[in-house]
Amino acid sequence: ATTIANLGACISACTNAGIKVIIGVHTPRWNTALSDPLTPTQAAAYDAVKAWVLTQDNGSTVRACDWSTVLSTGDGFTPNNTYYTDQVHPNTAGNAKMAEALYPILATIT
Fold first, then answer.
1. Dist CA 78 CA 16 (whole Å)
2. What is the phi-psi region of residue 12: left when phi exceeds 0, alpha when psi lies from -120 to 50, beta otherwise?
3. Does the N terminus or the C terminus of the chain have fewer Cβ atoms within 10 A?
4. Element housing 8 (H / E)
5. How confident is the model over 3-51, as pLDDT tens digits?
6. Of 69, 74, 39, 30, which is closest to residue 53 (Cα–Cα)?
7. Model pTM greater than 0.90?
8. Nearest-5° angle of CA 77, CA 8, CA 104?
């Protein structure tokens, strides 16, 4: 809840100042051990933040980029190791996938 409240405050402050916002959905990742899936509690928090971020896209002043889907195995949740150096940080191929997802959004910003 704190993450969502803080992101909401940042978005409001920017849009109230006339700044257009692009918010990225966090990349998929494993738990802190980097070898096991997230715990159910971690997964629920991840899903809640992702869902909230995606609902903020209003097509004009706030745009959302879903990096979790493009860097996952297709489920929007499990990291695709093709795109990671260490299951947290995207590699060159991962950065390219992120750019592919971001470019159409950037093209709409005027």
1. 35
2. alpha
3. C
4. helix 2-16
5. 999 999 999 999 999 999 999 998 877 666 556 777 888 888 888 999 9
6. 69
7. no
8. 60
